[in-house]
Amino acid sequence: MDLTDLRCEIDQIDEQLVDLFVQRMEITEEIARFKQANNLPVADPARERDKIVDVAARVDAGMHTYTDALYSLIFELSRTHQEKQLHRDSPLAGVITEAIENTEKLFPTRPIIACPGVEGSYSQLACEKLFPAPNIMFFNTFESVFSAIDNGLCRYGVLPLENSTAGSVNKIYDLMMHYDFSIVRSARLKVDHSILANRGAKLSDIKEIYSHEQALNQCESFLKTLGSVKISTCENTAIAAKMVFESGRTDVAAFSSLNCAEIYGLDCLCESVQDQGNNYTRFICISKKLEIYPGADKTSIMMVLPHKPGSLYKVLARFFALGINLIKLESRPLPNSDFEFMFYFDLDTSIYSDQFIQLICGLDSISSEFKYLGSYTEVV
C-alpha cells in the first residue's frame, strides 16, 4: 500500500470517529440534564479513573500513554459541554452581565487615582497614559495603593505588574491574594532609565546607586561597568531620585526616569542605561467595583489548584478546547501552605463570546479557589 491508500484508510476511520464522538457528546447533554435534576456535580473523578483503567486494559502497554492523553482530553471536553448546559444562569455569569450593563460607556477622565511612589514615578506616567486628567494621590508602598482602593479612599489604583526585561513584580501578585479588587484597564509603558545625580557629580565619582529592584535588574549590564558600587533598593524609582536630591551628596546616583531630573533638579549622567532598548512595563488599573467597559478583550483570573498531577493540565486543556489564547501564566506560593500555588492567568478573549462565559463559569469546578479579576482593554 502506498501513502495515498493509507490515508484513505485513516479518512474512513476518522469518519467513524467523528460520528461516534458527536453521539458521545449528545449523550453528555442528557447526563448534564440528569445531574441538574438530581443536584449532582459535573466532575466525577472516580468514573474517569475507572474509564481510563478500562480503556488501558483493552490496548497494548505501549499505547497506554496515548489512550490516557486521549481520554483525559475527551473527559475535559465532556465536562465543558455539560457545564455549558448547567451554567447558563450561573451567579458569576449574572454578575458579569450586570457589570457590562451598568458600567459607563466611556472610561472616566478625572477620577481620584492611587499611585505608588512620588512625583515623577513610572506609575504616574502610566496613570497619565490611562487618564487624560487624573487626580493623583501618591502612596509609599504597593500595599498602600491596594488599601486605598479597598477602603474607598480612591476610585482607582495604578500598579506595575510585569516588565519585558526583569519579569513579574512578585509583590503585586502576592498582594492580589489578600485584597478584593477588579482590573478595569491596563497599559504598556516604554521604560527608559537614566542615571541621575546631584549637580556637579561625575559618573566616576558614584559610589552608591539607589533604585527599585526591578530597575536595578533591568540595568544589570550597566551596573557592572560601574565597578563595586553599593546598591540600595527603595520602593520606587522616583523615590530614589528624591533620595539622591535630599542627600546632597555627589557620590550617589539613581536609576530613574529622565523627567525626575527636572522635578528634583538633578543632572543626567547617562540616558537609557537599561539592558534592552525595547524595555516595557505593563501596568494595571484596579478598582474596588467590577467595571467592564466596551471592547473588553482581555481577562484575568486567579486559581488555586489541587496539589496533584494533571490539575494545571485540566485548566490548560479547557482553554484549548474552547479556542481561548493564554497570554500569561504566573504562579506564586501560598503562604503557610506546603507546595500549594496560586496561578494567575491572562486570557485573550472577547467578553462577548459564548466561549468566554462557558469558560469562566466552569473553572470553579476544577479549582480549590477561583477568582475572576475582570475583563478590560489594554492601552498600548
What is this structure, in a nutshell?
The protein has 380 residues and is an alpha/beta fold. It is built from 13 helices and 16 strands.
Q: How many separate domains?
A: 4
Strand and helix order = HHHHEHEHEEHEEEHHEHEHEEEHEEHEE
**CATH superfamily descriptor of the largest domain:** ACT domain
**Uncertain runs with pLDDT below 50, 5 residues or more?**
none
Stated plainly, the CATH topology of the largest domain is called Alpha-Beta Plaits
What report would you give on this structure?
The structure is a single chain. The chain is α/β, with parallel strands linked by helices and 380 residues long. The protein folds into 4 domains: 1-86, Chorismate Mutase Domain, subunit A (Up-down Bundle), CATH 1.20.59.10; 90-103 and 293-380, ACT domain (Alpha-Beta Plaits, 2-Layer Sandwich); 104-191 and 280-287, D-Maltodextrin-Binding Protein, domain 2 (3-Layer(aba) Sandwich), CATH 3.40.190.10; 194-270, 3-Layer(aba) Sandwich (D-Maltodextrin-Binding Protein, domain 2), CATH 3.40.190. The protein has 13 helices and 16 strands. The chain has helices at 3-37, 45-57, 64-86, 91-102, 122-130, 142-150, 170-176, 213-218, 220-225, 237-247, 259-264, 311-322, 354-360; strands at residues 112-116, 135-139, 156-163, 167-168, 182-190, 194-197, 208-211, 230-233, 252-256, 267-270, 280-287, 298-304, 325-333, 341-348, 369-376, 378-379. The strands form 3 sheets. Strands 1, 2, 3, 4, 5, 11 and 16 form a 7-stranded mixed beta sheet that branches. α1 (3-37) crosses α3, α2 runs antiparallel to α3 (64-86) and α3 packs across α12. The termini are far apart. 35% of the residues are buried. The mean pLDDT is 91.
